[in-house]
Design a protein that fits this description.
With about 280 residues, the chain is an alpha+beta fold. It folds into 2 domains: about 1-60, no CATH class; about 110-278, Thrombin, subunit H. The protein has helices spanning about 1-10, 10-30, 35-60, 65-85, 100, 265-275, and strands at about 105-115, 120-125, 140, 145-155, 160-165, 170-175, 180-185, 190-195, 210, 225-235, 240-245, 255-260. The strands form 2 sheets. Strands 1-2-5-4-3-12 form a 6-stranded antiparallel β-barrel. A 6-stranded antiparallel beta barrel has the order 6-7-8-11-10-9.
Length: about 280
């Protein structure tokens, strides 16, 4: 306390000077319309700038929560879209799916905690496991396209076989040409993937979309795989040599959606039974 008193005593002249300056400034502002308006406009400008900076800082700090909220919203939209597509199949026109088939796909949002793209066989780790209803064999998609398939799970985490894996195949469809093929990564550029088994006599154009086909039990049909980048012809082959730009950018993958096909087990058991009878 004594040191504080000593400080005021030593600095009394400076403190008096500052108080007088403040008093003079106050009188100038209150006795002159020009200086009053100038002070008002200047103070408002700087206050607005400080407020804008504060809001920008708060918005940046909330980006994690904003991303999580958007992921949950996309999860709901994916569920509604899958239900709509399943309840209104393209053909035959008289077919109407029952409620079980229309509701067969369920989506669970998960956060990517690890992701590789530099190997021949790449994997992704997500923060959802068996406690969240995840199990091996479930498909995984991003907000923009196909990601992979769940390989192993524990209670709180799952490892996903990425589409950037030498043995991962995706049954794919060229809607424009109405042709079914298989998409497979060749181990090169993580932004590109090959589309195989498309007849050279089918029309294919640069920019055509390629989506998941109806002939798989892992992904809902119509999920974007990529878009045609280049078209060639394999020597002595009857198929196009097609390269796609992958729909999913694995370099900044943050949130994904695990797809549960509620009828997958039933479908695969029946197909296995038919195979055994052959």
């Amino acid at each position: 306390m004594g040191e504080l008193v000593d400080f005021f005593v030593r600095s009394r002249n400076f403190i008096l000077f500052v108080l007088l300056e403040v008093l003079c400034f106050y009188f100038i502002i209150n006795t002159s319309n020009y200086w009053s308006a100038t002070y008002f406009n200047t103070s408002n400008r700087y206050a607005a700038q400080i407020l804008a900076l504060s809001n920008a800082a708060n918005e940046y700090a909330r980006l994690r929560q904003v991303n999580a909220d958007l992921a949950l919203e996309n999860q709901l939209l994916n569920t509604q879209l899958a239900k709509l597509l399943q309840s209104k199949p393209a053909a035959p026109a008289e077919y109407r799916a029952d409620s079980a088939f229309a509701d067969r796909f369920k989506f669970t949002v998960a956060k990517v905690v690890d992701n590789t793209t530099q190997f021949a066989n790449n994997y992704i780790t997500i923060d959802k496991g068996t406690d969240d209803g995840i199990r091996p064999g479930m498909g995984v998609i991003s907000p923009t396209g196909v990601v992979g398939k769940v390989r192993v799970c524990n209670h709180h985490f799952s490892v996903v076989t990425s589409i950037l894996h030498s043995e991962f195949l995706v049954s794919s469809k060229l809607p424009k040409a109405n042709e079914i093929g298989s998409a497979r990564w060749d181990g090169g550029d993580p932004h590109l993937i090959k589309l195989m088994d498309i007849s050279r006599y089918k029309p294919v154009s640069k920019g055509d979309s390629v989506v998941t086909s109806e002939f798989n039990s892992t992904f809902p049909p119509g999920i974007l795989v990529g878009r045609v980048r280049t078209i060639g012809v394999q020597p002595n082959q009857t198929f196009h040599d097609i390269t796609l730009n992958l729909a999913t950018n694995f370099s900044n993958l943050s949130f994904v959606y695990v797809v549960e096909n509620r009828l997958q087990v039933e479908q695969e058991q029946l197909e296995k039974q038919i195979e055994n009878e052959k």
